[in-house]
Amino acid sequence: MKILVTGVTGFVGGHLAEFLAVHHPEIELHGTARTLEAPHYMEFLKGRLRFHECDIDDKRGVEKTISDVFPDVIIHLAAQSYVNSSWERPEATLHTNIIGQSNVFEAVRGLMSDAYNPTILIACSSEEYGFHAPVGGFTEASPLRPHSPYALSKVAQDYMGYQYWSAYGMKIIRIRAFNHTGPRRDPVFGVSGFCRKVVEIEKGMHPPQLETRDLTAVRDFTDVRDVVQAYWLAIERCRAGEVYNVCSGKGVSFREIINVVTSLSRVQPITLVPDPKGVRPTDGGVIIGNNKKFCQATGWQPHYDFLHQTIPDIVEYWRGNLT
Ligand code: A2R
Fold first, then answer.
1. Residue to mutate (ligand 1; options 81, 98, 220, 222; most atoms within 8 A of CB)
2. Which H or E run contains 49?
3. CB distance 162 to 242 below 8 Å
4. How far apart are CA 246 and CA 7, in angstroms?
5. How much is the pTM?
């Protein structure tokens, strides 16, 4: 089986490639990246993962990559993934996420035949639901209320997946992933940023204070290592045309997160101060998912305890990777 992971050098892509290389040696693994300079932690995948230089915005380049590889499975992760950047440059986010995915779908459609119809997993997002989870968490039937250009781009990707399945019978599985983090997460994302700051404090690079925003906000976090296993199970067991939440089903407030992160610091005490950049439009609210549909379809259960395994692992990662 040949698998093509778009955005393989990204946070999830790297963990997915590692998971597939370790647990599925039978798979021929391909990945796209904008440049062929792989991050150092992907060195061990040399010879195992074939890189293809490909900008997802470039229709011809995407067509060439997909027709060269002819994958049985595509896991489409390449995207502008950062909500805050989407406020600053909405058109770039909409273009890469929506037109980029259209380029992937059209390239596959051009190759489709009775003998060729690959499975495609697309990475949609909890951001599509908005900020006010009902009791029991957002289900796949909850209304979509995108609040940012990023969220809007993910709604479009999601419904594009539905449309290509319904119009052309393409085998598209839509996954709405809730917050996920883990070692190697870019520090622009909250939890990884807090963990890195604690390590900067330990190394004397930052005063013993953490800049925080709305600590009452509640999110549903899953470890990325559980998420990539979920993506693989989705490929094996989920139904094309369907949409599934991947989440823990449990909410955790940023106050709880900060308490755990600061408790791990070798420098005490750490003072909390308001973030000088102020509150962002994406702060606040309660985003919790309901994972019943996905768990029933696949048997998946998250294994990592977010507060007591994932967060310490991220702190350890920064202790070993901050110079
Ligand atoms: O920025 P780069 O060069 O590291 O590449 C990122 C890639 N990417 C692109 N690849 C090809 N053409 C583009 N125009 C383009 N723009 C971005 O997508 C990176 O390798 C990858 C995204 O990785 P991260 O930003 O680390 O996101 P993460 O957390 O891995 O998210 C994976 C998927 C995305 O669709 C998110 O929207 C969703 O899961 O949550």
1. 81
2. strand 49-53
3. no
4. 19
5. 0.97
pLDDT of residue 41 exceeding 90: no
**Mean pLDDT, to the nearest integer, of 74-96?**
96
Of 126, 291, 281, nearest in space to 214 by CA: 281
Is residue 142 within 6 Å of ligand 1 at its C-beta? no
**CA–CA gap between residue 53 and residue 31 (Å, rounded):** 9
pLDDT digit string (tens) for 224-249?
999 999 999 999 999 999 999 999 99
Output the six-digit token pair for 164. 């290509």
What is the tens place of the pLDDT at every residue in 138-173?
999 999 999 999 999 999 999 999 999 999 999 999
Q: In what order do the strands lie in the sheet with 73-76?
A: 49-53, 28-33, 2-6, 73-76, 119-125, 171-177, 243-246
Ligand 1 nearest-atom number relative to CA 125: 40
For residue 57 and ligand 1, the question of a CB distance below 6 A is answered with yes
CA–centroid distance, 271 to ligand 1, in Å, is: 34
Give yes or no for residue 190 having a pLDDT over 80. yes
212: which strand partners?
A: 274
